[in-house]
Amino acid sequence: MRVRHDDITGMRFGRLTVIGRAPVDETKASRSSRWVCKCDCGNVVIARADGLKNTRKGEGVKSCGCLQKERHKEALTRHGYCGTRLYSEWTNMKSRCWYPSHRSYSHYGGRGIVICDEWRDFVAFKDWALSNGYDDALTLDRIDPNGNYEPSNCRWVGRDIQGYNTRVRAKNSTGVSGVRYRANRGKYEACIVFKGKQYHLGTFDTLNDAAQARKEAENKYYPGIKI
Does the global pTM surpass 0.85? Predict the structure, then answer.
């Protein structure tokens, strides 16, 4: 004999108002009654009686799902910066260091570059950025391109300076940024990039001469920049 259940039609549980009993699902082992409910947002859902009644104890079903979504969105936007360029800088930094599927992971996380514990929290990163010259026209740059993402090794710079301050490429046998050896000529060639344009600084007989030319160009095009 089927057990009778109390009629809860018209009762309210959280954001849900019960509008009638739902058909019994014979495929379910549980015989808990199921009820059609209308959420304050307008959606209609079916919920079990025991789940609805637990709501009065602070547990159980409280909405069609919209409440959880709102709370999740609120948690993400509590700092008010979601969708901003600064927030994108932070998420891109994490992606480069944490996710092997990211196209630049091999140049960051893949070679041991990490993010300091403090900056795992966006609010801490935001506070540092706004206190250290952040502007939407600037990008996050590591002073030591082989160092980590942390306050002592980062700054906000234009894209031209960031491009200049790149680590020496693995295929560069000279060990000096902007200087390469031309084996077919037996000479060293120096160059520098400024505002997207590459400047040829000349060819030299020795590495020291080429490195000196590069250093002089750095002082000319990027005065006062610490490398």
Answer: no
